[in-house]
Amino acid sequence: MDIETLKAQHAEIESLAKGLLGAVAEEERSLVAALRWRLARAVIAHLAVEDRYLYPALIEGKDAAAASTAKRFQTEMGGLAGRFFAYMTGWPDHAVVENWADFRVESVALLNDVLQRVSREDAELYTLAGLNDSLSEPARAAPPKASRHFG
Q1: Cα separations (Å) of 73 from 48, 79, 105, 125?
Q2: Residue 137 belongs to a domain
Q3: Domain presence at residue 121
Q4: Helix, strand or coil for residue 113?
Q5: Averaged pLDDT, groups of 10, the chain, 151 residues long
Q6: Looking at the 3D structure of the chain, how many domains does it have?
Q7: Is 39 a domain residue?
Q8: What is the pLDDT of residue 140?
Q9: What CATH number does residue 37 fall under?
């Protein structure tokens, strides 16, 4: 498993989420739409890699603690991913402009949850994955590099 690729994706997600938080806090509305869509692309790409490579490898591996942790994180992520996608579809650009105050409140709450999730995955899940020698060979293969999903 190429944990370094996943960590790099996390760094990108963290940077974009913090940038969006700053744009929302400073009411830099011209930056909000672009940052939201860049973040959405990064999150979607990252989730695809985790769902295809990381979670199956850990869940099917020989390490019971890693499997249990991966199952817990995968279940938790479903809720956050659903909230994120609802946020993206529920706040088209015109709605953001028309109801800035509610958009701002929802953005801050969601982005803080995304940042917390990234931090927890780095500290708990990726540590287990990096130390787990029981991952199958296909799961150890580096996920395909998809540089266009950020930016």
Answers
A1: 15, 10, 25, 8
A2: no
A3: yes
A4: helix
A5: 86 98 95 96 92 90 91 86 94 94 97 95 86 50 41 32
A6: 1
A7: yes
A8: 44
A9: 1.20.120
CA-CA distance, 35 to 96, in Å (whole number)? 13
Handedness of CA 143, 146, 149, 150 (dihedral sign): positive
Q: Tell me, what amino acid is at 67?
A: A
The sign of the dihedral angle between the CA atoms of 91, 93, 95, 98 is positive
Domain contains 62: yes
What local confidence, expressed as pLDDT, does residue 1 receive? 52
Distance (Å, whole) CA 117 – CA 128 = 16
Helix (H, G, I), strand (E, B) or coil at 36: helix
The pLDDT of residue 43 is 95
Residue-level pLDDT at 141: 46
Instruction: Give the pLDDT of residue 84.
Output: 94
| Helix or strand (DSSP H, E) at 65 | helix 64-90
| Of 111, 138, 90, the residue nearest 43 (C-alpha) | 111
CB 35 within 8 A of CB 16: yes
Q: Which range of residues forms the domain containing residue 7?
A: 3-129
pLDDT at 2: 79
